[in-house]
TrEMBL record:
Residues 2-322 form the Carbamoyltransferase domain. Belongs to the NodU/CmcH family. InterPro entries: ATPase_NBD, Carbam_trans_C, Carbam_trans_C_sf, Carbtransf_dom, DHBP_synth_RibB-like_a/b_dom, NodU/CmcH_Carbamoyltrnsfr. It comes from the Bacteria. Residues 371-540 form the Carbamoyltransferase C-terminal domain. This is Carbamoyltransferase C-terminal domain-containing protein.
Length: 546
């Protein structure tokens, strides 16, 4: 059977296709529209659908809308409780109206689709399915925590042989995700977009406001929690865009981050007591907080934690489709990886380069050629295979650099046009990771945990070591990505370092590069030395030769 999943109601609109229980394709609308996060999470935008992502998913499988058995829409307007939403209360009826009319909107966006084929999947059930059904095991405890769904902000439950049992939810307005969004905005960043900046800023501060926050943010002993109204200005003055943060702002970020970690530990402890499961699967925007994930694994009761790589709202498209597949009697297969987006053949890439009229070469040994450029301290834009589903660059659409040059942190942040407190990450072969990194899980293919860098390595790879001595690593499995693995080996042969810098191939405020045109435009506008487009290599000096 064929199920299309869609996320549209808040932010990060996306589409995913599941055929006969297998994940075939998944993509975020931002990669097509080139609007970061697809749209802003306001009621006025709720009518916007991931039309381009959905059309691509169908085309990728050679399907038409009328071939679908059902379409999952990851929000159920019947569950909305007026007056309890916790956000945009004056306009919430508009959001609900758009959701109610989504089947008609979808029939217009996807001609041939029968509106009766659209099924509403509760937002947090879709999140849960994106974790519990996509994970590499059938049974697990599942923890979902985000800003909000229809009427709740949290779900705790258990998957047993593919069936979900909901054990606890938390009604709005209490929300850990909305609380983190509020402090994000207070610190001068964009809410529902820049929460990861708060996590990075937290490393520069001390949690000196933690005592007060423990009174305001607390668990209730029944699987839920309370978040009281917080006067953020009482801790640090509100920052406007571009204003410089102070010690107070870093300390506030550190305090909020620590309290979030503590509450998640308590919620996980409650869930473990009631399920006895060894494994925890996680989704929801809060699950993208890799610092909290690492502390959960290190100090919590679960032996294993698996986090869905598109854990934010984009992942509900995948979860909705998997939920319908499971409900139809088709056991959902684990997701095969995060490389579920668009890809191009070598011939198609050569045609793009021909159209762009740029000089290029095809090295006999691409891995060795790129490693040599990186060893010479050049910045490389790397475009290979199908694009990643989710917010992390995982060696498909990446910017790479030498990790042994401390100046490369500032250099890459300048290339991307972003704040200098932002860390950059290392990629490393899975079998070598344990020599360099500790504490976090290995393998760690989706960059959703942080690891301590062993003291003897910190001075050897300073570009990827955050101020607190940690790094958010991506481990590379040579069976899954032999080209990337060979490049890492070739780089080590030249430098003695088995690590390469990996950050997303984009500039600040722009979605990650997705198609060849995006790659060429980014290469043309940012001071990147080399673009690797499939098997082809484009040198900046040749393209812009005077």
């Amino acid at each position: 059977m064929k199920f299309l999943g869609l996320n549209a109601i808040f932010h990060d609109p996306a589409a995913a296709l599941v055929v006969d229980g297998e994940v075939v394709a998944a993509a975020e609308e931002e990669r097509f529209s080139r609007r970061k996060h697809g749209k802003r999470p306001v009621p006025f935008s709720a009518w916007e659908l991931p039309e381009q992502a959905a059309a691509w998913c169908l085309a990728e499988a050679g399907l038409k809308p009328e071939d679908l058995d059902a379409v999952a829409y990851s929000y159920d307007p019947a569950l909305v409780r007026p007056g309890q939403q916790g956000l945009d209360e004056r306009w919430e009826d508009l959001r609900t109206t758009y959701a109610q009319r989504a089947p008609s909107f979808l029939a217009t966006a996807l001609p041939g689709l029968d509106p009766a084929q659209v099924r509403y999947v509760p937002h947090h059930v879709a999140h849960a399915a994106s974790a519990g059904l996509a994970a590499p095991y059938r049974d697990s405890a599942v923890l979902v925590c985000d800003g909000r769904g229809e009427a709740v902000s949290h779900l705790a439950g258990r998957y047993a042989d593919g069936e979900l049992s909901v054990l606890a939810t938390q009604e709005l307005p209490h929300s850990l995700g909305l609380m983190y969004e509020e402090v994000t905005e207070h610190l001068g960043f964009m809410r529902s977009s820049d929460e990861y900046k708060v996590m990075a800023l937290a490393s520069y501060g001390e949690p000196r406001f933690l005592g007060e926050l423990r009174e305001l943010i607390r668990t209730t002993g029944d699987g839920g929690f309370r978040v009281e109204p917080i006067d953020w200005a009482g801790y640090a003055k509100r920052l406007g865009r571009g204003e410089t943060w102070s010690e107070d702002h870093a300390d506030l970020a550190a305090s909020v981050q620590k309290r979030l970690e503590e509450v998640l530990l308590e919620l996980a402890g409650w869930l473990h007591e009631r399920t006895g499961e060894r494994r925890l699967t996680m989704a929801g925007g809060v699950a993208l907080n890799c610092v909290a994930n690492t502390r959960l694994l290190a100090e919590g009761p679960f032996d294993e934690i698996w986090v869905q790589p598109a854990a934010g709202d984009a992942g509900t498209a995948l979860g909705g489709a998997l939920h319908l597949a499971q409900a139809s009697g088709e056991p959902a297969a684990p997701m095969p990886g995060a490389d579920l987006g668009r890809g191009w053949t070598d011939e198609e890439l050569a045609a793009w380069l021909g159209t762009a009229r740029v000089p290029y070469e095809r090295p006999a040994d691409l891995a060795a050629a790129v490693a040599a450029e990186l060893a010479a301290d050049r910045i490389v834009a790397w475009f290979q295979g199908r694009s990643e589903y989710g917010p992390r660059a995982l060696g498909r659409r990446s910017l790479m650099a030498h990790p042994g040059r401390a100046a490369n942190t500032e250099r890459l942040n300048d290339v991307k046009g972003r704040e200098q407190f932002r860390p950059i990450a290392p990629m490393v072969l899975a079998e070598r990771a344990g020599e360099i990194f500790t504490r976090g899980p290995i393998p760690s293919p989706y960059m959703l945990f942080v690891h301590d860098v062993r003291p003897e390595w910190r001075e050897r790879i300073p570009a990827v070591v955050h101020v607190d001595g940690t790094a958010r690593i991506q481990t590379v499995d040579r069976a899954d990505d032999p080209l990337l693995a060979r490049m890492l080996e070739e780089f080590e042969a030249r430098t003695g370092l088995p690590v390469v810098v990996n950050t997303s191939l984009n500039t600040a405020g722009r979605p990650m590069v997705d198609d060849p045109r995006d790659a060429l435009e980014c290469f043309g506008s940012a001071p990147v030395d080399l673009l690797v487009l499939g098997p082809y290599l484009i040198r900046r000096g040749q393209v812009f030769a005077s």
